[in-house]
Amino acid sequence: MSTHAARLAALRDTLAATELTGFVIPLTDEHMSEYVGGYAQRLAWLTGFEGSAGAAVVLADKAAMFTDGRYTLQVRAQVDGALYDYISIPETPTTDWLAVNAKAGDRIGYDPWLHTKGWVTATAKALAARGAELVAQPQNPIDSVWATRPAPSGAALEVHDAALAGQSSADKRAAVAAWLKTQNSDAVVITALDSIAWLLNIRGRDVARTPVALAFAIVHADASADLFVEPGKLTDAVRAHLGSDVRTHDRSAFGDALEALGSKTVVADPASAVAAIFERLAAGGARIHETRDPCVLPKAVKNPTEIAGTKAAHLRDGAALTRFLHWFDGEAPKGKLDELQAAAKLRQFRDATNQLEDLSFDTISGAGPNGAIVHYRVSEATNLPITMNSLFLLDSGGQYKDGTTDVTRTMAVGTPTAEMRDRFTRVLKGHIAVARAVFPKGTRGGQLDVLARLPLWEVGLDYAHGTGHGVGSYLSVHEGPQRIATVIGTGGEEPLMPGMILSDEPGYYKTGEYGIRIENLVLVVERDVPGAEKPMYGFETLTLAPIDRNLIDVALLTADERAWVDAYHARVNAEVGPLLDDVQAKWLNAMTAPL
């Protein structure tokens, strides 16, 4: 099993032994999570792909790897093209590919704990049209050939104090109970890990970079709840925090508990509850009401306590990043730095705050051509030196108990080319357009996405990722439902509301040469617009760190854009400067001088 070819062959042997001709491998867990624990990294083990979104389909005579535009370069570097065809999504999802490549008589297996009900229904229909069959598997066949598969984390749950959460778990559960009454329902199944963490004011360490715990929950119309979690993860402090209205059970009891709901009306979110949950509910005779998890929107709309906390986290984090940028400005031109060293040094500055719980994702430390790999993750094998007259892209963030950060800066090392400065400035213009946007209540993120792309479109350029994603409060760095994205129907259709936090991160990537991205987090706020006929909203920038002035072609900026940069830099200097030592503060003062 030392090679991915051997792993693929072993999987095919196992499938043949169970009379299957294929199997579908998504990158997720039983909670439809984006970031998953080591035990659920089946796709990475099988294929070598280390991105955060993707899937594979293995047939007897062919296999395919499915990734979106963020991973066009990465998937080719990590997954053997002799073993897998590279398929782009959303253009060709797994269901459509199977509809073309499956043969009559094929039996395609899937793990019902790793797919949504909608996917199962659509894929079964597509296969049936080919004379093939989709077959649920009681045990995932990859687990039988992955001899070194790690066990799920046993880390203890942690209490997230109401002083940080801004609302007690009892009040949140009462709100869910009131909502259940409006739905004429008796209970709701909560499966998304960040929803459970938010609802019960608990956090965990079961998933790297995301402070959640592996658990399921059922909330009832009387505001009580059942929490299904490994017993060893419950400390006395957590039990006391949960109180008598939250009953705890072994995680393995969850399936039987679903069937025990009997003739009750039960809400389940088709986006986050896997197919197996619907099957167990139906087996017990429950009436199933499919609608969105009631925690999703209130979790996304931050309360005043969470907003104050995230602002404190961003100031702390911005000072750490600025210290790094000062250090980098002095060290990079010496020609002795590489990507791993830069990422490690930034981690040191964040650790020095004495409040960092974890990074919010693996730092993207991309020198030169590696910067063009949108979700690049540096390793010993890919580590590049940071050379003169090049660009360095650094996308990073921290998890603090009062907030989650995510920031990208692109820096010139030496003298940038005219093309680099042009592209950087166009990305900056798009960033500013979103940051300055004023829009009416009801506006969806997808309606704003074009603002970030127009300066690039004008010269025939674009980028293959969304412009903005939601961010949690000491939770997931990628949080829905809010997004700023191009494709309506797959993201970007949620109306933006005051209290939501999003990223503003347009970019440009020249394959084999360099990448550019400028990312700040922004908070949706109310705007006072004289004469407005409906409520108006805009963004308040949360991230505080200088933008590389050496990459700005000032002639490409309008007067309003120059004024935005100057005002932003003046704010960074005023708020971050007092947190630095004299040498760092002097450097920041120069870096934030008016254009």
From TrEMBL:
The keyword Hydrolase applies. One of its GO terms (molecular function) is metal ion binding. The keyword Protease applies. It comes from Glacieibacterium arshaanense. Residues 7-135 form the Creatinase N-terminal domain. This is Aminopeptidase P family protein. GO terms for cellular component: cytoplasm. InterPro entries: Creatin/AminoP/Spt16_N, Creatinase/aminopeptidase-like, Creatinase_N, Pept_M24, Pept_M24B, Peptidase_M24_C, X-Pro_aminopeptidase_P. Belongs to the peptidase M24B family. Residues 310-526 form the Peptidase M24 domain. The lineage of its organism: Bacteria, Pseudomonadati, Pseudomonadota, Alphaproteobacteria, Sphingomonadales. Residues 535-595 form the Peptidase M24 C-terminal domain. Keywords: Aminopeptidase, Hydrolase, Metal-binding, Protease.
